[in-house]
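Input record (Table S2, row 212):
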Amino acid sequence: MESYKRMLLSNRAWIQERLTVDPTFFERLGQPQKPEVLWIGCSDSRVPPDEITGTNPGEIFVHRNIANLVVHTDLNLLSVLQYAVHHLGVRHVIVCGHYGCGGVKASLTRAELGLLNKWLRHIKDVYRNHRQELDLYSEERKVDRLVELNVLAQVQNLVHTSVVQEAWHKRQLPYIHGWVFGMNDGLIRELTTVAPNSPIDEVYRYDFHDEG
Ligand code: CO
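Output record (cobalt (II) ion complex):
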């Protein structure tokens, strides 16, 4: 059977399963969403955020792109971030990378990939900033360590947005987390948590003034 047909059949089965457990499931699902978490993850099909975290519909607001990047000129990501932080009022933003990430791997090669070069360039910059450490490792270890360093860099990119800084100023939220998922064992490792109003490098810091 074609995979898209199987998806439609599975959807009908899923409805029945949900209704068996909770007959009011879809009434509740139709209510306005109030997720506490924004998830920024890789588009990789093997890293489904709700499945690996056991979360239900309504619990996490999701943005995914190749290699879970936070790029300051990415209107898509910035719109998701602004909506999640200022309108939904999420308490946590999680950047979740994964070991063996194809985007990170590709960034370490000299392959000419057209438009993708421009996207992966952001990871090459992370490599350049940590070249001394990374060049000590085997190829596989190098990719996995760069996956971690990339997540840490994207966490800092979030901290450097005016969206996050304004929310820290106004409501002492959100916390920013850096995680890595291991596909070989299913485990999510916590790399870092940045609490609201943590120190910010001077050059990236904005001033906010209370209104009125
Ligand atoms: Co990936």
